Amino acid sequence: MCDFDSLDDAAKTAYHHQLTECATALGGKNFFLLMLEAVRKTKPHPLVTKSCEFRFSHGSIGWDKIIFQDKFTLLSKVRMSQNKQANLLPKPTDPSYKKILNLVRTLHPVTFHAKPKQRKDGEGFQMQALDMIDAHTTRLNPVFDAVFFCSVETVKKILAYKPKGS
User: Which of 22-26, 62-66, 76-80 has the lowest mean pLDDT?
Assistant: First the structure.
């Protein structure tokens, strides 16, 4: 999803609306972009914190299960292959299939909650790390991908996208 230019118009519009709703729920585009910049600057990556929470100047993101470094490293690696095959899961004959299937089983039930610091700024939003299409097809949730992996410039482009016909 980080390759926004390669998407068709319908997918671009859907992605734009999803991210715009999340930004509004967090207090607006500026707060949303501040969150993304804070995530990008933090080392080690916020997903591997033992507290299962990431705080930034205008809010926080929390989740309900620790993500260990090995799972994070594998997720970073396989998200790139998803762009080529539109599926996080490789073929069952692939040597890495079992590791990736375990990653999917680990991350699928985890829910992420992004909340603004001030209640008046918005209600916040929830997201899953993965979208399970069927038993053999799993994709990275586009909002999760935008929050934790896509470049800030790409997300700015998505938020500024003007759907055709509007």
Answer: 76-80
Residue type, 149: F
Confidence of residue 135 (pLDDT cuts 50, 70, 90): confident
Rounded to two decimals, the pTM is 0.90
Rounded distance between C-alpha atoms, residue 83 and residue 52, angstroms: 27
Contact at 8 Å (CB) between 46 and 148? yes
Cβ 61 vs Cβ 84: under 8 Å: no
Over residues 60-86, mean pLDDT: 86
Domain boundaries, the chain: 8-160
Q: Provide the b/e sequence for 68-99 (b: ≥16 CB within 10 Å).
A: eeebbebbeebbeebeeeeebbbeeeeeeeeb
